[in-house]
TrEMBL record:
CDD domains: GATase1_catalase. Residues 1-22 have a biased composition (Basic and acidic residues). Keywords: Heme, Hydrogen peroxide, Iron, Metal-binding, Oxidoreductase, Peroxidase. This is Catalase.
Length: 674
């Protein structure tokens, strides 16, 4: 098991780790027990006695073991890692963890889906949460972001409404983890600031191939403040070094059945195999004096800053290198909050961000049962904490001083605030003035320009996926009025888009509106993303009697970082005609092409009828999902039999070409859509 250890946070966690193997069974009071299989009874066939403290303790603990799941982002997967800053960011921020080239900071990241319950599947069409806790020497800093750079609404007061709309409908709790239902789309059509985010939500971004292959965004505009007190507007980005990749919708739906833990397993296994995921931290910075220089309001969370206008500066990287020891203790109990900041990082007046600053602590109070959740090992800062807050459920700190108030003379006025020079946090003194109003700025009212920007930036195949996603989702809506309202709304984005959806839905095409916005931002498309062979997963379908070329091929694939898993018609091992032996990872019954990036077939016939039945199906499905297909030696006969030789991305007896096909990942032109 590969587990990178020994940073300050890891050492702190060590104090809480307990190894139970090899120990005697005790009660929570440390009492060793002589029996754990039978409750204490009055006679062998008699009733259980109240006196049985061991049974009572065991059952009570069990009865109380669930805590409320997160109201959103309930399903998540957390891992440890380290952040390293490349060069000093002192010109922008005084945050110490960003100020020394090469400085490393322990981090914990939790990836999540948003709408589904904790037990839902990973491949829902959904936004992914991307929350990072930096355990800095100045206290915890949380960057609580998503894999989509904008949000559905502009003001957090609408968040409960939005979540009510997207969650399962309240009368029958259907559908689970899906936005394909009436209330979601009714919300969209009646809250048109959702337009831009819905375009992302209908795009490939919402069905990522892996947590390791998606971008992360802080979404809001934050502030960086330097030592001199100068402030800069900033947006945070995480850029995956493996590039941004997605599955296709048909695959996503099938993966949900074949392996609902697909994303969790993928990340867990990558870390266990030592293939540590790396994301680079990028900053977009706007000087204060340029606040009004753009054709969008930089405080509006439904707007992005086009990378071509405001370049992303890469300033550091994080490496995810350690799985948790215990899911509940770490991943479930971790408590993020956008308000956990350190000196040098501050907020903007984005009304979505402002409301989040209230919600996160509030939710932890109910979810984690009281105000001491910062003492839980995963949440505990590595920076010491001292204040006059006392007591509460589950309090662990033993404050020894009788003085728990400020100001005081008995403890020499400690713990007391310190100056900024000594590291004290002081809020950026932004000048604000205005009337108390419940209103939205005029500058927030353009809901369609950037939805158009997104559409204009997509390749033909990405547009095709968006059309299909809308058609699927609206096709699941029962109310025709909802479908019509949505079509009408998106006719403000593209006539091509709504005409294609309308045709799929059998509805009249809305009136063609004049669209004057013409900008695009190539950085938004996934077509030109980084493409690598590293950690791509190839299923090698082989059976006893495989030819000697297979071992060489497998070695070649592995040498470029490809993960190879052998699929056969029986478990155990298979023997080649060169007397080599290969361990079988899966059978054709337990694996499926949707769980792999590519398929290589090396045999024509297996020991059992399963092979002849399942192998062609496996390959045909990979073909439909535009994936690379390779064959060596007798395996080619199967490709001929199912008549797919000669198609793009179908490679016979050529390892170099097959590797290149795996790197390319998808062959969209099989359907003539690129
Ligand atoms: Fe969250 N969000 N959110 N959110 N959010 C929560 O906090 C909330 C928003 C995000 O892995 C909750 O601890 C409000 C935007 C992530 O533990 C809750 C609003 C973004 C996670 C909450 C938003 C996010 C949460 C539920 C509108 C991207 C999971 C449990 C103003 C920038 C963190 C919890 C984890 C979780 C409230 C909008 C990201 C209820 C009120 C925008 C990644 O407090």
């Amino acid at each position: 098991m590969s587990q990178e250890k020994h940073n300050q946070k890891d050492e702190q966690l060590d104090q809480f780790r307990v190894k139970d193997e090899g120990e005697a069974l005790t009660t929570n009071q440390g009492l060793k027990m002589a029996e754990d299989e039978f409750s204490l009874k009055a006679g062998e066939r008699g009733p259980t006695l109240l006196e049985d403290f061991h049974f009572r303790e065991k059952m009570t603990h069990f009865d109380h073991k669930r805590i409320p799941e997160r109201i959103v982002h309930a399903r998540g997967f957390g891992v440890h890692g380290e952040f390293e800053v490349y060069e000093s960011l002192a010109p922008y921020t005084k945050a110490k963890f960003l100020n020394k080239p090469g400085k490393k900071t322990p981090i914990f990241v939790r990836f999540s889906t948003v709408a589904g319950s904790r037990g839902s599947g990973d491949l829902a069409r959904d936004v992914r949460g991307f929350a990072t806790k930096f355990y800095t020497e100045e206290g915890n800093y949380d960057l609580v972001g998503n894999n989509i750079t904008v949000f559905f609404i502009q003001d957090g007061i609408k968040f409960p409404d939005f979540i009510h709309a997207v969650k399962p409908e309240p009368h029958n709790e259907i559908p689970q983890a899906q936005s394909a239902h009436d209330t979601f789309w009714d919300f969209v059509a009646n809250n048109q600031e959702t337009a831009h985010m819905v375009m992302w939500h209908m795009s490939d971004r919402a069905i990522s191939r892996s947590f390791r292959m998606m971008e992360g965004f802080g979404v809001h505009t934050y502030r960086l403040v330097n030592e001199k007190g100068q402030a800069f507007f900033v947006k945070f980005h995480w850029k995956p070094v493996l590039g941004v990749h997605s599955v296709v919708w048909d695959e996503a739906q099938k993966i949900s059945g074949r392996d609902p833990d697909f994303h969790h397993r993928d990340l867990y296994e990558a870390i266990e195999n030592g293939d540590y995921p790396v994301f680079e931290l990028g900053l977009q910075i706007i000087n204060e004096e340029d606040e009004f220089k753009f054709d969008f309001d930089i405080l509006d969370a439904t707007k992005l800053w086009p990378e071509e206008e405001v370049p992303v500066q890469i300033v550091g990287k994080m490496t995810l290198n350690r799985n948790v020891d215990n899911y509940f203790a770490e991943t479930e109990q971790v408590a993020f909050h956008p308000g956990h900041v350190v000196p040098g990082i501050d907020f903007s007046n984005d009304p979505l961000l402002q409301t989040r600053l209230f919600s996160y602590t509030d939710t932890q109070l109910i979810r984690l049962g009281g105000p001491n959740f910062h003492e839980l090992p995963i949440n505990k800062p590595v920076a010491p904490f001292h204040n006059n807050q006392r007591d509460g459920y589950g309090r662990q700190t033993i404050n020894t001083s009788p003085v728990s108030y400020h100001k005081n003379s008995l403890a020499n006025n400690t713990p007391g605030p310190v100056s900024e020079d000594e590291g004290g946090y002081s809020h950026y003194q932004e000048k604000v003035e205005g009337r108390k109003v419940r209103a939205c700025s005029e500058s927030f009212k353009d809901h369609f320009s950037q939805a158009i920007l997104f559409w204009n930036s997509m390749s033909t195949v990405e547009k095709y996926h968006i059309i299909n996603a809308f058609s699927f989702e609206l096709g699941k809506c029962k109310e025709e009025s909802v479908r019509e309202q949505v079509l009408e709304m998106f006719s403000n984005v593209s006539h091509e888009l709504v005409s294609a959806i309308a045709e799929n839905l059998g509805l009249p095409v809305p009136w063609k509106k004049e669209i004057t916005y013409t900008k695009s931002s190539p950085a938004l498309g996934q077509e030109n993303t980084i493409k690598k062979t590293d950690t791509r997963k190839v299923a090698v379908i082989a059976a006893d009697g495989y030819s000697k070329e297979l071992s060489a091929m497998i070695n070649e694939l592995k040498s470029v970082g490809i993960n190879v898993e052998v699929v056969s018609d029986h478990q155990g091992t298979i023997q080649g005609n060169d007397n080599t032996e290969l361990p079988v990872d899966h059978t054709l019954m337990t694996a499926d092409s949707v769980l792999f990036d590519a398929v290589l077939i090396a045999s024509q016939n297996g020991k059992t009828p399963l092979f002849r039945f399942e192998a062609p199906y496996f390959i045909k499905e990979a073909l439909l999902h535009y994936k690379p297909i390779g064959a060596i030696k007798e395996g080619a006969a199967i490709l001929e039999e199912i008549q797919i030789t000669g198609q793009n991305g179908v490679v016979i007896d050529n390892s170099k070409q097959f590797i290149e096909a795996v790197r390319k990942a998808r062959f969209w032109d099989r359907e003539g859509k690129n």
